[in-house]
Amino acid sequence: MKLWEVGYYDNGVYMEEHHYAVTRIQAQGCVIHRLKRQVKFEVVRVVDESEVA
User: Fold this and answer.
1) What's the CA gap between 44 and 7, in Å, rounded?
2) Spatial separation of the C-alpha atoms in residues 16 and 32, rounded to whole Å
3) Any idea where the domains of the chain sit in the sequence?
4) I need a surface site. Which of 2, 18, 32, 52 has the fewest CB within 10 A?
5) Tens digits of per-residue pLDDT, 1-53?
């Protein structure tokens, strides 16, 4: 798994979160699933690619 940094705007406020996921889509899906709506992602990048069990 990789550690992803996900940045997006939520009601005009910039939010930044970190999620463990295999792919970029899975990292974005964590945010979408929690908010239950679509958001526009500004930043989606890998922070750490080390192996996590």
Assistant:
1) 6
2) 13
3) 2-47
4) 52
5) 899 999 999 989 999 999 999 999 999 999 999 999 999 999 999 999 876 55
pTM attached to this predicted model: 0.84
Per-position DSSP letters for the chain, written without gaps between them = -EEEEEEEEETTEEEEEEEEESSHHHHHHHHHHHHTS---EEEEEEEE-S---
pLDDT value of residue 51 = 66
Six token digits for residue 37 = 């709506």
- Residue 42 vs residues 17, 30, 50: alpha-carbon distances, Å: 12, 15, 24
The two tokens of residue 5 are 């940094």
